[in-house]
Amino acid sequence: MPNIDLIDSYAEQLTAIRHDLHAHPEIGFEEHRTSGIVADYLQKWGIEVHRGIGGTGVVGVLKGNGSGSRRIGLRADMDALPMEEKTNLGWRSTIPNRFHGCGHDGHTAILLGTARYLAETRNFDGTAVFIFQPAEEGLGGARAMLADKLFERFPCDEIYGLHNAPDLDPNKVAIFAGPGMAGADFFDITITGYGSHGAMPERSRDPVVVAMALGQSLQTIVSRNINPLKSAVLSITQIHAGSAYNVIPNEAKLAGTVRAFSDDVREKVRERMRTIAAGFAAAYQVEIDVNIRDIFSVLINHEAHAAIVTDAARDVVGEGNVLTAVRPKMGSEDFADMLQAVPGAYFWLGHEGSVPVHNPGFILDDGILPVGASIFARIIESRMPATL
Ligand SMILES: [Zn+2]
Ligand SMILES: [Zn+2]
After folding, report:
1. Among 107, 169, 176, 321, which is least packed by CB within 10 angstroms?
2. Which ligand approaches the C-alpha of residue 106 most closely?
3. What's the confidence (pLDDT) of residue 192?
4. What does DSSP say about strands 232-241 and 251-260: parallel, antiparallel, or unpaired?
C-alpha cells in the first residue's frame, strides 16, 4: 500500500515547510523561530498547543472521534547542528555555522504532516500527542522535556519516533525490538602536573607524557576488560596541551566519548577509566580529574511496539520494504530517555542520497515526508481505531 492519499496531497506544503526550516536552522534550545512555526501550524489546524515545554519544546494535543481513552505520543526533533552547510541547494542554510545536517527539519515537517492529516480526518478514537522536541544533538532536549513533566502533563500510553536514514534505500524502513542505539557518555580528563622549561624535564611533572600514555591505556578497557561478545567504543576525540616549543605545560586534557548497549558495560567502562587514571596519577605524581557525563541512554525498542511499527510500515511501504533483521547503530539518540518513561519504538526511514548525516554535504530527500507522515498516521489509526 502506498502513502495515504490525503497526506500525498500535502507534499508540496510539507516540502515548502521543510525548505524554510532548512534555510533558517536553529541549534538546541534556540529553536524559537522553528517552534513558533510549528505552533502556528498546529493552531491553524485546530490542535491544542502548548509551548515552552523543556525550553523550546512544543506539544500538540488532538482528540479523535469517540470517547476512547488511549493516548499515543509521536515525537519529532527540531534542532540543527553548529556546522557549515556545503551544498548548492536553493534552500541551503542562510545562517553561518548552522545546518540541518541531521535532517531534523524533515522530522519536524513529517510530524506536521501527520498532525494536519489527523486533525482533518479525526478517524481515530483516543488522543494523539504531537511532541516537538528541542536539542536532540547532545544537549539533552528529551531530558529537559521529561524534567518539565512532559508525560505527567500529557500522559501517553505509548510513543513513537523516527529518523531519516541515508544509508537505507529509498522507501525502506528498519525496525526491530531490543537495543537499537547505544548509550553515550562524554568525558573530560584533566591532568595537572608541574610545568618547566622544555630542556629541563627533571624539574617538571610532565602532563603531556602522562596524557599520551593514559590515552593508550584507556584503549585496553574495550579490548581487555569488556566481554568480546558485547560491544563498546571508547574514542578519545580531543587532546589539548601546551603553547610553546620549549615549555612543558602544567596541564593536559583528553576528551571523548564512550558508547555501549548495556548499562552494565557502560558502568564497567566508567569504573575502569577512573581506576586507570588514579593509577597513573599515583605513578606519575600528577593530579588527574576524570569527569564522565551520561549524555544518552541506550535506546531500547519494546517488542510489542516494534511490531506495531512493523505493521504500520508494511501498510505504507509494502512488506518487502520493512527490514526487521538489522544491526543496531553505535550512534545515540535521546528519544531513548522518552522510551524509558513510556513504552514505544523508534524506526529508520531510508531515502535517496548516500551522504551520511552530520556530513556538510548531507541532503535530505523530500520524498520521505509523506512516507513518514503516513506511517505515523497509520500507527495512530491502527492503535486507536475509530468506533463506527
Ligand atoms: Zn544528529
Ligand atoms: Zn538526528
Report:
1. 169
2. 2
3. 98
4. antiparallel
